[in-house]
Amino acid sequence: MNKSEWADKDYYADLGVSKSASHDDIKRAYRKLARDNHPDKNPGDKKAEDRFKRAAEAYDVIGDEAKRKEYDQLKAMLASGRMGGFGQAGGAGFPGGFRTSTQDFDISDIFGQSGGFSADGSLGDIFGGLFNRGGTTGRQAQPSRGADVEADITLDFREATKGTTIPIQLTGDAPCATCHGSGSASGQPTRCDKCNGSGFTSENKGAFGFSAPCDKCHGSGSIITDPCGDCAGRGTIHKTRSIRVKIPAGVIDGQKVRLAGQGEAGPNGKPSGDLFVTVHVTPDKIFTRDGNDLAVTVPVSFGELSLGGTITVPTLGTPVRVKVPAGTPNGRTLRVRGRGVEKRDGSKGDLLVTVEVKVPTNLDAAATSALRTYAQAEKDSGFDPRADWAGND
């Protein structure tokens, strides 16, 4: 989302964490909200869908250390009043203005009615460094890095829990192979003589000094005097490329995986942006997840629960044999340690095995006779399955 919209958001509240929360706390909060409010789990629930979207948006910002730092800086400036009416300003003037130790003044007195503001109402020359962009038209700095790229992939349940590596194709700016991304045919851009290679020029306006992107080199600090014939001096070309994306074990539906430097190439040798891959996970016919625990419901017979025994249960790997104690009630969940989803530290969650009686529908004569004999013996023993049910004594 546009960073100028951050002013109206409280991402910590959206995730239900404090501003001092650790990265792991933020991740846990996001995963819980994403799991509880996922549209597949709450079909038709618009409120849950809205909570899911707000959690994803919040995690995209404060779940990224660099973005979180910028977001915290912006909110701190807003709280201190140093940005006045930022987020509400139009093209003319600035509600609230700035306050110095001696007097109040309107920021339009410095810049005029529109100077210093970009078209979306955000502060330009003053706070351009905070948002990686310049101010007025014609003085914008050249991007300091390539654009971030977003992609979506779909994994089946077991791929997501075990982790996998898959190839994806991306179309966008990539470094020019001819000039190696420099934009110069000789590979040696010329240093800008106006800003002396700094990319910025300084000017004084009254009692204030301001830096702005150099309008000759557009903030790059260098000028291409011999542009590459293949990329026309940009240093990038538009192409389709294939990369392999490693998805860590235990990824959940809706989670984003960040691949640093795998986005679009930056102009004239600048660093590449990042690639954000949103993972969609299809449900499994057998397993579900509860955090890092793997859950499975296993059909059993009445005799297996009454008399006890050992049953074979599937896992993500080799099946495991689980002992069922005699007299186990229907619906009981048995825990098998260490056979769940792998965690980041290499350990695993547990396997939760819920036993559910499967009632036979077609019994032969011998089985029917034996069952009637048992039912009578059960009754004669004084067993009443409804003795403690619905207030019966």
Concise synopsis of the structure shown:
With 393 residues, this protein is α+β, with helices and mostly antiparallel strands.
Major sheet summary line: 4 strands, mixed
Percentage of residues assigned to helices: 10-25%
Strand content: 15-25%
Q: Tell me the name of the CATH homologous superfamily of the domain at 153-184 and 227-285.
A: Urease metallochaperone UreE, N-terminal domain
C-alpha end-to-end distance = 64 Å
> So, CATH architecture of the domain at 153-184 and 227-285?
Sandwich
Tell me the name of the CATH class of the domain at 153-184 and 227-285: Mainly Beta
CATH topology of the domain at 153-184 and 227-285: HSP40/DNAj peptide-binding domain
Low-confidence stretches are 83-140
Protein name: Chaperone protein DnaJ
Subcellular location: Cytoplasm
Keywords: Chaperone, Cytoplasm, DNA replication, Metal-binding, Repeat, Stress response, Zinc, Zinc-finger
Cofactor: Zn(2+)
Descriptive account of the structure:
- Its main location: cytoplasm.
- The structure is a single chain.
- Helix 2 packs antiparallel against helix 3.
- The protein is of the alpha+beta class.
- A four-stranded mixed beta sheet has the order 12-13-17-16.
- Among the domains are: 91 residues, Urease metallochaperone UreE, N-terminal domain (HSP40/DNAj peptide-binding domain, Sandwich); 88 residues, HSP40/DNAj peptide-binding domain (Sandwich).
How are the SSEs placed, and which strands pair?
Layout: H1 11-15, H2 23-37, H3 46-62, H4 65-80, E1 98-99, E2 104-105, H5 108-111, H6 128-131, E3 149-156, H7 157-162, E4 164-175, E5 190-191, E6 200-205, E7 208-213, E8 222-223, E9 236-247, E10 256-259, E11 275-282, E12 287-290, E13 293-300, H8 302-307, E14 309-313, E15 320-324, E16 333-336, E17 351-357, H9 365-380
Subcellular location: Cytoplasm
Zinc finger (CR-type): 163-240
Keywords: Chaperone, Cytoplasm, DNA replication, Metal-binding, Repeat, Stress response, Zinc, Zinc-finger
